[in-house]
Amino acid sequence: MAQRGGAQRPSGGGQGKICQFKLVLLGESAVGKSSLVLRFVKGQFHEYQESTIGAAFLTQTVCLDDTTVKFEIWDTAGQERYHSLAPMYYRGAQAAIVVYDITNQDTFGRAKTWVKELQRQASPNIVIALAGNKADLANKRMVEYEEAQTYAEENSLLFMETSAKTAMNVNDIFLAIAKKLPKSDNNARSCWMLQVITFKTGETM
Amino acid sequence: MYPASPKLGLAHLGASTFFASAHPSESCGSNGLPLTPNSIRIYGRARALQLINHPHLSCYVDIHRGKHERIRVIQEYYLLNLKGACNKYPEIRSHTGLAQIAHQVLQGLVYLNTFGTVTCNLSPQNILLDPHGQAKLYNYGLYYMTEAGSAVSFPLGIVRYTAPEVLLHGASQDGGGGSGGTATVTGNPAWDVWSLGMVLAEAVMGYQLFEKCEEVEGLVAEVLRTGLAAEPLKHLAKTHNSTQKLDAAPQELRDFLCTCLTPDPKDRPMPRSLLNHPLFRTMTISAPLNPILPHFPVIDPSLCLIDFAQYKAKLSEVENKGTVLPDYPLIPNSDSPLQANHTTEVIKSEQKDQLSERSMREVYHLWQLAGGNVEQELKKQKLIRTKPAILTLPSVMVVEGEVFGGDASHQQQLEATTIILPLHSLRSRLAHVAAHKYYPLITQRECGTDDLETSRLPLVIRERDVEYQLHRILTFQRLLQAYPYKADLVKSEARKDTPPFYRSLIWAALLGVDGAVADTYQQLDKETPTLTDRQIEVDIPRCHQYDELLSSPQGHAKFTRVLKAWVVSHPHLVYWQGLDSLCAPFLYLNFNNEALAYACLSRFIDKYLHKFFLRDNSAVIQEYLAKFSHMIAFHDPRLANHLHSIGFIPELYAIPWFLTMYTHVFPLQKIFLLWDTLLLGEASLPLCVAVALLRQLADRLLQFGFNECILLFSDMPDIDMERVVRDSVQVFCSTPPSVTFRQHQRPTSERDNNSHLPQSSQDLLMTGVSLAELKGEQCPQVSGADLLELSAQRRKSRRGLAKLLLVDVRTSEEFARGTLPEAMNMPADFTFTPEGSLAPGPNAELLTSYRGKIIAVIGSRNNWGQVTEFAEKLLVLEFPRVCTLHKGIEVFRASGALVVPS
């Protein structure tokens, strides 16, 4: 899709725009942040996904109508202690996905704290999405869908329940973010750059 | 190390194999993760069996996990079992002989009970007799490792000897307290007592029990009928027409059998109380009945008495062992006559066979190095039969992934055959090693592998060379036994290389582990819930889980305990994610000795990660990362300039490197290679490792932009670890010590006591530099003392080869008033052209000729900006090893090192 989309065409103008966005994932540890990114970027899922220390970085491009959106994704460490590092990653981010685990009420509480912090500290126009991950474990659900949805509406967040394991809603949530992001020309970069990235990450949507 | 593992003696290494039961596909545990394969459960538990060390229990040498849930067990083995021995030797089937056997079996059982398990698998086949006529229980660990049989699909034990209550209720019930089905499964020791009774009764009567029953159902019925009889022993005798034979037995023996065959398990005595039975009045216990936990260091005052008792017991054992049973089948019949001759010869000349004096585990390790492969042996001897793949295809497969049909029948039973691992090729490989080499003399200086040609070959070859490894093992065994007195020698030997067989103990020695390791650990509270528990609980199931041991439930439990112990014993420090990875190598190496794993982890963090696990560690980490940036600039200016220009700062990628000392970045096998050297070095060595890592990837990094660089490290590419190790040592040696000085490093005793030094010397030492200053500068600072040291080296070297160029950047007037001898004056204002290149001149030429040597930029602390600016201009020009004099030239005033240039 990326190849068919704007990648071959020069940037600028109304068509074939290439936009680059910085996106950060936040949330309690072991809720599946790295798994969501891995699913989105490489289409893979590891049951024993290693913990993230500090942060990890990955990129992925998606096509939206005539715009190619390139995500630069910062996947952060979940443990509360790494909190002090977080601003380094969400500073200047245009989008954030705050993740919780639907089988664990505490992680939902932690997600709310993250949302509050982002609203206070991050760029004012940041697009925030709330992801209730591990939807495949619905039989162990502790956070009701409606509860999270109401919360998301009150705070004007995008909201989806996702499953990195079954890939449910994973691409969708990134696409929804892409749709909501402003696509002005000052985000555009050269096509050549984009192709290198596409080649490196190997997979496109 | 302690207790020493049993020697090979006249034993064989026997291999047997069975299948763990497979989970239905796609089944998940309550945490959403797939269920741990049963073979991994077994593998993790079986490790503990290697701790068992008792003369009447065959030693568990090793356990492997193969494909398709196959488990392979390597165990001490003898060709004669109780059944064969009774047929062959009248003295064994005599009543006193049998009583002797019963006594020995009971001792084995008591030891197992104290260890926390039962065998549930007692039969004449599983009671082996060694050439000295000593009974050795075989295959007794099956119940323990399979968690009461729950991890396999076959029943444990042979029906005719199994206690009736086991046949009725199954073996997963719990005998004593506690709950069944979990890791606390202990079984009921009384089950084995029944089995022992049946085995002995059979031997006394001289008949196979229930011989006529061919069907399993019939057998079960017979056993249950026996159990229901008022007097099971009489019932047995009657049904086998052996009342006369039984009556011929002495009263005490009959009474013992009767007691063993008590139908109600509640009334049946335990093995321990049976040891006091009058039947054994004249017999003595062969060895202590309580397992001794592994102990390091070996020398510990509290253990001396036990040790002495053991030693005495050993002596008497040796005396007892004097005679070998006549005509004992020492070698399997199937061996070719030539081999047989060879082996018999070797065994007959027992005095000369050095291999039999080595521990079984060591022999097995060497056997593998000599090309031995258990799977190959099992295949050769038809215990593993390979089938054409098409025959194993299932006939039906449902959408959920469950399969039906295909050939799964082989998993339903336990293959009782044991094959013998042939040792003749290992023996001939080591035949030329002189006997005295087995007892290396540890003098002050040398311990003797230097004369081997192999010692000059690359590490990969040395690690696979049998003879070389034998020598290394012999040397280190001696040294480790003498630890901590020989700690220095351990260190100097480890500089050559670390034999994998003793890696765990060598590491402990290098870390200086000492004192009451086991007691300290035992007293720590590893159970009480804490706030950290959830974090540890979610981290462990994703920490080095490709490894079979660390992914087993036993591994997880041990992980939790060691981490909790560390957290609870370091109240000023906290659990940071990454501590789990740091614990992994120690736990892997000391899987059977949690206390040592804990001790090593604590010592390691203390030395290499001092203050890293503070609740607020940002100052510590920031300083470390700033030092790392300086190191890159110092050693690789081109790379440093590039990374600086794209904003690729260490904060973004190097935190996991340092916080986990690379354990979160590399798989265990690579970490072993790295840490073998890391542990020999100073606390600053990890910085050099990071420089070496970047150096290996420099070609790529120099071409990459920010995104590609960070992607490269998000998924660490394949690294030639041997090269990293080599390079990092080289980096370390070419870095003045003060360059890596950190104010948060662990104070060593000398540095601690700086205060007694006169002011003039104190000035010359490195002191803490504020984080802002560190981060503001690109080149490292070097202490006055290091500069004097380097200058002195220069004067000493024969050809006057300089390692160092001193560049005084003050004005020529200031320079003329006093500077260091041999310093060159390059006033900052006139040295560079407006474009930033060196203004031509003799001094500029001299400077260029020193490219690659250490260039120390010296100025006044009152004009510090000038100094750093000068250094950074040199960095831009890609001069390596540029550093600035810490606290300016003023530091030399008091010491009188300054001279007026001529």
Automatic annotation (TrEMBL), chain A:
Keyword line? Endosome, GTP-binding, Hydrolase, Lipoprotein, Nucleotide-binding, Prenylation, Protein transport, Transport
**The UniProt record lists the keyword Protein transport:** yes
The record's listing under InterPro entries reads: P-loop_NTPase, Small_GTP-bd, Small_GTPase
Q: Which GO terms describe its molecular function?
A: G protein activity; GTP binding
Q: What is its EC number?
A: 3.6.5.2
Reactions catalysed, semicolon-separated, are: GTP + H2O = GDP + phosphate + H(+)
Give the enzyme's main class according to its UniProt record, as a single word: hydrolase
Entry superkingdom? Eukaryota
List GO BP terms, alphabetically. protein transport
Where does the record place it? Early endosome
Q: Which GO terms describe its cellular component?
A: early endosome
One Pfam match: Ras
Q: Which family does it belong to?
A: Belongs to the small GTPase superfamily. Rab family.
Q: What is this protein called?
A: small monomeric GTPase
Protein source organism: Petrolisthes manimaculis
UniProtKB/TrEMBL annotation, chain B:
Name the keywords, alphabetized.
Answer: GTPase activation
Which Gene Ontology molecular-function terms are recorded?
Answer: ATP binding; GTPase activator activity; protein kinase activity
- A Pfam match: Rhodanese
Keyword Manganese found: no
Task: Give positions of region: Disordered.
Answer: 739-759
Q: Which residues form the Rhodanese domain?
A: 800-901
Boundaries of every Protein kinase domain copy: 1-280
Q: Which residues form the Rab-GAP TBC domain?
A: 497-682
Q: Does the keyword Hydrolase apply?
A: no
Please identify the protein, giving its name as recorded. Answer: TBC domain-containing protein kinase-like protein
Organism of provenance: Petrolisthes manimaculis
Higher taxonomy: Eukaryota, Metazoa, Ecdysozoa, Arthropoda, Crustacea
